Amino acid sequence: MDVAKRVGEKVAQGVPLRYALAVEKNPAINLDSWHKAIQRNKNFRDEYDKAHAAFIVTACERLVGERDAANLRWILERRHPADFGRRVEVEVKEGRTYQLGDTVYPEEDFNRIIEAARQKAQETMHANGG
Description:
The protein is mostly helical. It has helices at about 1-10, 15-20, 30-40, 40-65, 70-80, 80-85, 105-125; strands spanning about 90, 95-100, 105.
């Protein structure tokens, strides 16, 4: 359980899971073994979920309190794009379009991209025991 606690503390600080595991410096502790462990051990899963939620809550609280929180926004946008990613809507004569970064997509293409990303995220979560 000490491993789960140490890894959870790193995740709560915003460290990606693979790096939080690598810090353990034990080849037996890796993404594969971690996902198997959290499937078998509810305490491991609870510790990880709690740490993951703690990072999001802390980051959001800091965003509210910061005057210049660009770095924190950047982390949230990239680590949790479904919740915090930027979507800029642009109206044009031909119909609705969406801009992601510097690229503008027609609504139909944008919806296909978003659906593919959601499916990939679900597959990844399922593969990682989520």
